[in-house]
Amino acid sequence: MSIVNHFPVLAVVVLLLFAYLMPLLMRWRKEWCVPATLGAIGFSLIASLYMMWQVMTTGPFMYQMGSWAPPWGIEFSIDYLAVFATMTITIVGLIVIYYGTQDLLHELKEQVMGWYYTLYLLLMASMIGMVLTNDLFNMFVFVEICAIASCGIISIKESRECIEAAFKYLVLSAVGSGCLLLAIAMIYMVTGHLNFTYVAQALPQVMDLYPLNILVSLALFLVGLGVKAALFPLHVWLPDAHSSAPSPSSAVLSGLVIKVYAIAMIKLLYKVYPPELLGMAPIMNMILWMATLAIIIGSMFAIVQDDIKKMLAYSSIAQIGYVFLGVGLMSESALQGGILHIFNHAIMKSMLFLSAGAIIYATGTRKLSDLKGIGITLPVPTIAFSLGAFAMVGIPITNGFISKWYLALGSLDVGRPFFAAVILVSSLLNGIYYLPIVVNAFFGEPEGAVAEPRPLPRQMVVSLILLGSGVILFGVFPSLILGVVSKAAQSLLGLL
User: Fold this and answer.
1) Which of 63, 140, 214, 431 has CB 3.0 to 4.6 Å from 76, enough for a Cys bridge?
2) Within a 13 Å sphere around the CA of 80, how many CA atoms are in the beta-carbon half?
3) Is the CB of residue 78 less than 8 Å from the CB of residue 87?
4) Distance between CA 269 and CA 380 in Å, rounded?
5) Angle at Cα 345 formed by Cα 82 and Cα 196, nearest 5°?
6) Is residue 63 classed as helix, strand or coil in its secondary structure?
């Protein structure tokens, strides 16, 4: 049997293996740490692209560990949503850590570098495992690995605000994990299964017997995953965690980590719970209103920030709202928009955090009011930041416009124009806090550290150019990614 047949499990196992080896390499072969990390994530990227090609040509398939069939064996579901998410995680994750190979030298002490790569590889493995698994218990295991690794890449900087932010995240994340474990226990109690497919078959049969247990389990999932995805009003840990962490950590936390919990929620709502349950309680309406509040209030908090990374952190709260808006509207276009925004936001928000990191690296300043004229002295990060800002506002030819367009269309499809208006208002609010930064950067007079910045290393410049190209490429040619996105939306809605 060839190695490509085992790509689903190897995409996770290779990352876990290298995470285990990293502290040893740091001790005896320090110079191997960076190529080993990049190589492990590169392998997972190749595996994810091969799986995507396989799914798009021959359709979704199941991978069973050790050929043990469920319900006894562990199973990975390689479907359209899973390969889309795996590709997003590996592409963005690889670019972020390539940038980090230089930026982390300036942000972290040398003796913790090996541990950072360990945590980063664990984080990547847990995210891929979470989107591929077809089993509630294994999903919980990957959620826990992801939470611990996330706390690690925040607190590793060892400054007071990083440790405080990581502690706050750990406490709230533990509450979320408790909700998830209780929900899984309740599902297991009424169905006797943990495998998604078996649970989905059993739930309609036990609905009449245990309606309350099933509703409570769904509520617990919504709270548990809502805390971890920072869905308003469960977002309180996010601004401190994302703004105080090292820039590559901020980029991966905001660009990828909060999204995998949204994907887990999508899988549960559309693949596990029966549609008639969603009719019994206004679950989707609750998600819609939480998403709307996230979009508006996240943007309003971002407007009043003067710290560049804190502003980007509050902006992330608004952006995760778009994803959940697509989930809650339950129309094909809206779901396409929500899923597409996972990919588009991963690219643009990673680029914004990395641009901010490059500006902090070169000038030592984080205050937006001090960045006048930065576009003249540091063109590459400022142009990348401007592109990301335009994409956030939703200006045509950027990828941000495409996902907002689909979300607006989806809200009109189901006869709810109010949510299309929310998207328009949020774009105006985004413009209020992003566009003045861009104008100041290119039309202000540079002073102090901004007038004479440090030169940027090649890795940081290349990473920003790659992400900036992605924003334009997927804005001008959205069909490159829309094929898999529309298949994912159709399969979730049962239209295939």
Assistant:
1) 63
2) 24
3) no
4) 42
5) 25
6) strand
3-state secondary structure of 495: coil
Query: In Å, how far from its chain's centre is CA 466?
Result: 18
Residue 78: its H or E element: strand 75-78
Helical spans, DSSP H, in 192-257: 196-206, 211-229, 238-244, 247-252
Two structure tokens written together for 325: 């808006």
| Residue recorded with tokens 């339950």 | 330
Angle, CA of 309, 312 and 314, to the nearest 5°: 110
Comparing CA positions, the residue from 243, 140, 237 lying closest to residue 196 is: 140
Please write the tens of the pLDDT for every residue from 108-123: 777 777 788 889 899 9
410-420 in b/e form (b: 16+ CB < 10 A) is bbbeeebeebb
- At 15 the three-state DSSP class reads helix
Which residue, 40, 242, 24, is CA-closest to 121? 40
User: CA nearest 419: which of 407, 431, 403, 402?
Assistant: 407
Dist CA 399 CA 388 (whole Å): 9
What pTM does this model have?
A: 0.90
pLDDT digits (tens, 9 = 90+) for 24-59: 887 787 778 788 888 989 999 999 999 889 888 888
Other residues' Cβ atoms within 10 Å of the Cβ of residue 53: 11
